[in-house]
Specification:
The protein is of the alpha/beta class. Helix content is 37%, strand content 19%. About 2% of the residues have low confidence.
Length: 386
Amino acid sequence: MYAAVDVGAKKLPAPGTLPELLLTLTALSGEFPASAVRRLPGSETYMMQVVKQLKKEDLLRTYYRDSIRGLRLTSTAKRLLLDSQPKHFAPLFSGDTATNAPKYSVTHRLRLHRMAEVLMAMYNADVLVFPWEKAAVFQSSPFHGHQHIPLPAYYSAREIREIKGVSQEGKKITSSRMTGILFSDAGIFIAYNTGPYQMAWRHNAEMRLNSMLQNEIYQGRLPEQFMDVPVSGIVFASDMERLDTMMDLGNGLPGCPFILDGSFKHFYFLPNSQEGETVLRLLCDGQARTTLDAILSQGLLPPDPSFPIENDGLDGKIPVLFGYLCDMPRLRRFINGLAVHNRKGLVYCFDFQEEAYRRCLGPHVQLQSLDLAACERSVFPSTESS
């Protein structure tokens, strides 16, 4: 099925192959959700064959308990990975870490799965995710001087917690629900993943996280690159059905004050799917968004900052919002403005978002659905239709 390299009496998949990628992602995750295998590059049928072959070769095993199915490395796989790339894998397979000795409780396993899903989305969106590809910004040892990191780059919560070795401020992030931080030319994004559930947000913990990052990273370690860069939030969910719940946050529901309370001016909702990964690419690529906005602006009057309702353009006297990024606070401000001024408005969204938007945005909003695949080809010319 794939070319392999000898390491002792056993074999590892050849570098650059999908089997090798799956083993690496599982190593980084501690436990990789079985449902996320279909999101790896290649056909679902092929990936199922890859999983079967890796199990047969005693490199991968399924752990199924409490109706949760995950993939874990075998001891053989860990030894082979350590032998082949000790600098890469030694930090993952040492000590009482989640990647070396993952716990077996439902809560801990779901946390590993949520982090792995975001890692998968970032990888598919062409974001740097492997620790050995990135600058060790959150290293435990003292950080000397200023440096630039290649972008876009994603640092998992596990990597970020290494900062505890250099500052007591690092203890402030222990209770945060973030899965990691995405650095890009278009901004900094703190990522969360609620999966199919409603997350119990801890507002104070998230604000302490943001304060620590401001002091340690944006101003302390990478000031030349990120001092004035806006910080936003991203929340991933299992599908667009979860948007209904998210858009209700901030309206007095117990334990749900975080997304729409102004902590972040922009907070984006993305499904854990190929469609969500396309929107993630747009979030990382300001030039691509500018290109798409220019296409959508054809035939519209330019945006009017003096208009009583936030807008990206006007269709006559009707305010238009480009809502394809699913920026929840911005959508909420738009629909609230329409209600206050008793106006109709138009929201542009992607076709996969339309049904959820129709439920959430209310009677004052009309929707203009955009073909996601066509928009993707327009702004990412090298992308081939799948």
